[in-house]
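Per-record layout

source: Actinia tenebrosa
name: Aspartoacylase-like isoform X2
length: 309
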Amino acid sequence: MAETKPERVKTFSNVSISGGTHGNEMTGIHLVRRWMSNATARTEVERSSFKTHLLLSNPRAIEKCVRYIHVDLNRQFSHDPITPDKDKYEVQRACEIQKWIADNNVDYSIDLHNTTSNMGVTLILTSLAATTIGLQITASIKEAINFPVSILSLGFAFGKRDSGFTSLTKSGIGIEVGPLAHGTVKSEVFQRTAAVVSKTLDIIEAFNNGKEFQEREIELFECKKMVKYPCDENGNISAMIHPKLEEQDWKPLKKGDPMFMTFGGQTITYEEEEVIWPTFINEASYLEKEIAFAVTKKVKRHLGAVKRI
């Protein structure tokens, strides 16, 4: 049997790190501000083989400490040209950021987020970013970190294909860390986010300098759909996450397991045959869309070897 040759991929020359895509997720905001304003701190994100670019994505939302002003900025991005809308600040900002990405030739993006859900550290890839090199980098980050890390591939579960920040570059990750209440900072979350960013940059640097990623198998979660809260005939939410499901992100949910509890105290169980792994459980930001949690499947993915061109 002939040996499979490694896939050849171009090195990365410009890496962006963004915080404040959602203006009330404070970890990324404070990290990016620190790296921007402190020359010594900036060396933490500088490497010799590529240039690092820093961005506070949504300044007006950051100023008001809200998720967004008009619409969710993280749903406005696209690798295709974005249609301007002067009445929606985030659409205009998405156009500006798309130009900033192009002007700086950014080819790998790191977007920093927080979640109120008990997800720990999660590395998120859009479908465009879930390439062999993208998954190899992500798997290497997970291996290099000394605390639990989950890998989540979004696919089409959020409706609009690849509308996240990394869709602007095709390569990159979202780093989602929680649980953390919006508008707050927690030292452990801050330090873990900084550690993941540092390892990501180290791994890109090693690849640029000739490190070959070996063929391997990895485990990750694929997002399939979103589950909404039960509602009454008037469209009002009529149930909440069951206590036995609360804070159980990344744990299997099987047929007959408690899923919701009505405001009257009745239990609603999960009745599908297929085992699922819920995450983003009771995420505060999704309540406006009546989303209770995301459904994921745990899968294994074979990755071929990759080396630089």
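summary: The CA atoms of residues 23 and 59 lie 7 Å apart. Helices lie at 26-37, 39-42, 59-64, 89-103, 132-144, 187-208.
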